[in-house]
Amino acid sequence: MMQLATSAAMVTAVAGHGYINEPPSRTGAILEGAGSCPYGSCLWFNQGCTIGCPACGGVASGFNGCGKDQGNETLPDEFKTYNVNTKGCGINPWCAPGSAPIMDPCGVAGGDHVQGTAGNGGDAPPGYKLGVHGTNMQDGAKGLHRTWTAGDVVDVSWALIANHGGGYQYRLCPKNSDQTEACFQKMPLEFVGDEQYIQYCALASSGPDLKNATPWEVPPEVAFPTKCDRTKRTAIPAMRISKGTVPAGSTWTRNPIPACDNGFGGAFNVGCHVSTLSGKYAPTTASQFQFPPIGPDLARPGLLLGGFGVGACGGCNQKLNPKDCNIAGKSWKNNCTVDELDAQLFQWSVVDKVKVPDVPAGEYVVSFRWESEQTPQIWSQCSDVTIVGRSQVVV
């Protein structure tokens, strides 16, 4: 396990929650950084977004939706990831996949242009001001560009920092087109097969302090020099849904990692307690999660593939903290100790295979859209790729 100095440097603010890292993201995220929030990659999202609404309400809307304009849930019970034993889903994005509005398909710095409360974003990624749109951001993955061949099957992946359940989709838009949600909705990438993978990639035991660094100051390949062994992955069953989705008939994949079985899901260090210290907490069991974990977490010996992630440890590290921080005790709205923080790290990514569409050769943008079920938030970031035809491939 990493030491605290490394953990604290790489995790940065944990009001953010997840990000695309294959293809390498404009945020500077790559597979090798999974478990951390490199360059604030997990801080690009959309706040106050609920199903059927004409627009996201931002921080000001809280968790209240949009009243008479609210859409209807379409999610079958078996695809729920929160409150799975209760009837109905609610108004948060995953309750009707794809139907919630979005501020920007490449994310918004801090989720909105104003400061949020603890757990609701408002921390801007290093080098950006609150409210900057990801469609206008610099490419922090320069030099790590991927070239795809039309018709091929390729890997895409994302990393999980704070587990809000839900599900996700990858979409494509020509780079010479306006990078709008409408453009990305025209070309959802087709998932291939009924399996996905947990790709393990241990963080280096030491590295640069990325707390305030940007990818153009410390390039990703410098920050994370230890290459992932792409053969070190575990196949797991994928749950995909294409009914009641937007665009109509498009396929979405459920987040396979269960959060803790309480309303917080494990946020603020509530429930599902884990530690690297033997005997500090009783071993977690399947009954402590929203739904049974798929199996063991090979990067956390003795623990299961479930929990909230290292985001559980940062509830009292934000500019606007809950009033009971450091008052109510370790089991309620508090930060983690060193051993708890290290045990919460998810040092892996969730990998899916998608088919590269038969499109004209050229430059394209991949948008990752992860819809939360626990909160009215959508995480979205973008990666740039080149697509070539088979006749252009040099053998």
The count of β-strands is 14
SSE run: HEEEEEEHEEHEEEHEEE
How would you classify the helix and strand content by structural class? mainly beta
Tally of individual helices: 4
How far is the N terminus from the C terminus?
A: 42 Å
Described by the principal axes of the CA atoms, the overall outline is globular
Looking at how many chains there are and whether they match, the oligomeric state comes to: single chain
Strand coverage percent? 15-25%
- Could you tell me the radius of gyration in angstroms? 19 Å
Averaged pLDDT, please?
89
Helix content: under 10%
Which parts are unreliable, with pLDDT below 50 for 5 consecutive residues or more? 1-15
Largest sheet: 8 strands, mixed
Total domains, how many?
A: 1
Please characterize this protein's 3D structure.
β13 and β14 form a beta hairpin. The model is unreliable at 1-15 (pLDDT under 50). The protein has one domain (4-392). It is built from 4 helices and 14 strands. It is mainly beta. The protein is globular and about 60 Å long.
Jot down its keywords:
14 strands, 395 residues, mainly beta, disordered N terminus, eight-stranded mixed β-sheet
Question: What would you say about this model in short?
Answer:
With 395 residues, the protein is mainly beta. The protein has helices at 4-11, 181-185, 220-223, 338-344, and strands at residues 18-22, 44-47, 108-109, 146-149, 153-160, 167-174, 190-191, 195-200, 233-237, 240-241, 252-254, 348-355, 362-371, 377-388.
